[in-house]
Each structure stands twice: as structure tokens, then as C-alpha cells.
Amino acid sequence: MPDNLTVLGVWAHPDDESYGPAGTFRKLADEGVRTAVLVATRGQLGGIADPSIATPASLPEVREAELRDAAAILGIGDVAVLNYQDGQLMDTDVLELRGEVVRVIRAIKPDVVVTFGPAGVYGHPDHVQIRRVVTEAFTAAGNADNYPEHMEQGLAPYSPSKLYYLAVPEHVAGRISESGIIADHDSDITTTVDVRPYVETKLRAIRAHRSQTDFPRELEENSAELLSMEYFKRVLPQPETGEQMEHDLLTGLR
Predict the structure, then answer these.
(1) Phi, psi of 35 (to 5 degrees)
(2) CA 41/CA 38 separation, integer angstroms
(3) CA-to-CA distance for 222 and 238, rounded, in angstroms?
(4) Rounded distance between C-alpha atoms, residue 236 and residue 233, angstroms
(5) What's this model's pTM, rounded to 2 decimal places?
(6) Is domain 6-236 annotated with CATH 1.20.1440.230?
(7) Which residues contact 195 (CB under 8 A, 6 or more apart)?
(8) 10 Å Cβ neighbour count for 31?
(9) Spans of all domains in the chain
(10) In angstroms, how far is CA 49 from the centroid of its own chain?
(11) Mean pLDDT in runs of 10 for the chain (254 residues)?
């Protein structure tokens, strides 16, 4: 395998990394791949499941610590947290936010970038906005005309090889009725990763976010079935007609 292959996940909130492709990231780490996560907010508007864990004032610090605990469980070595306001990414300066994502891409130099799909899993505006911004940043990072101030800071233009969206197939979304998940068409899914050995690890990462609530009952009761596969749509390079299903985000790179 080539040295220093890197996969970067870009999300809106702490815990997105655990409910999303947690098993895939743990699997990649176990295979010697460098993994990294960028989160745009510190989850300031999240629930507080237990008042002894956090107060509204301390919640951002608590949620960032929970993110780092979950990342350690998942073998994610690089964690970057921006300080945008939870729930307000739609109102954020898009050029500025895109520049922050470009900065991280140029610094980390990932081979693969993963983020939400267009529906943001369940329509959360922050998720939808991050998908838009990351998609633009994926291309912008390789163009020296974009954010030239980065070059003055030693960050050269860099183009990742592949961009993936997290996907939730219809048969999974239909089993998690409490969540409001918006299913992806099965025909849009290009990549499935078998993470059966990592189901308990994924659950540990989710539970590391102790301040949060709303763990879907069906997910808890049927974790072995619902969490054993993770699904993605490869956006760039676009799949060719008749292309076979991938089972690795690094297909063609190792």
C-alpha cells in the first residue's frame, strides 16, 4: 500500500463522525490508513442528557471533548474543530467557511474526502450546507487562484483524488422510524463497506457523546443488522456506466 494514504471526513457537529462512517474509519485506521476529521461547529445547541455532564455555557467544551474521545475510539489521529455557531451554517459567509475547509484539505492532503449527501441524512440545514461547502472546497483546493493567502502560510494547492457522500439506503432508513432519515436511492450507492467487526466499536463511539440524546430505539435494538454495513455515493470521479460496486473508499488508490 502506498505510504501516507489519508481519508478526511468533514461534518457539521460532534457525533456526526460516529453516527456516520465510524466503522469504515476504524477499519481504515486498523489497515494503517491515516484518518482525520474536521467539524465545523462545537455543537452548542445540542441537548444535555444529564445536567451533571454539562451546562449550556460549558456544552461547547464538553462536546469537543466528547468528539476527541470518540475519535480516539475510532483511531482518528487528526481532529480539527472550527468554531462556527451550531444551527447557523446556512447564514455563515460561504466563502469564509469554504476557505477554512480548503485550508484543512491543503494542510492534511487527504486522498479521499467524505461528507454528507445533498439531503444531509435528515435535512438538517447545517448538514446540507456542509455538503455544499465541502463539494466546492474539494475542487477549489487544487486551484492556486483560490485563497492565495494560504500559499504565504506554506499551504500549496492540493487536489484530493476522490469525494464521497455518506448514503443511507432505503431498507435502512425504513427501519429507523424515529429519525426522519431521508433515504438515498439504492441505485445511487456506489460503495458498501462491511464493518461487522466494528459494530460494537461504533456503538462505543456514539455513546462517547454522553451529553447527547435521541439514540434511535431501532438502532439500539437492531445494531448488528443496521450498523454492519456502511454506504457511500462516489461523487468525484463520477462512476462510469456499468461500474462494479466498490467495497473500499480507497479502491484504485492501493
Answers:
(1) -120, 150
(2) 9
(3) 33
(4) 9
(5) 0.93
(6) no
(7) 23, 24, 26, 27, 202, 227, 228, 229, 230
(8) 13
(9) 6-236
(10) 23
(11) 84 94 97 97 89 92 96 97 95 96 98 96 94 98 97 96 95 72 91 95 91 65 78 95 92 94
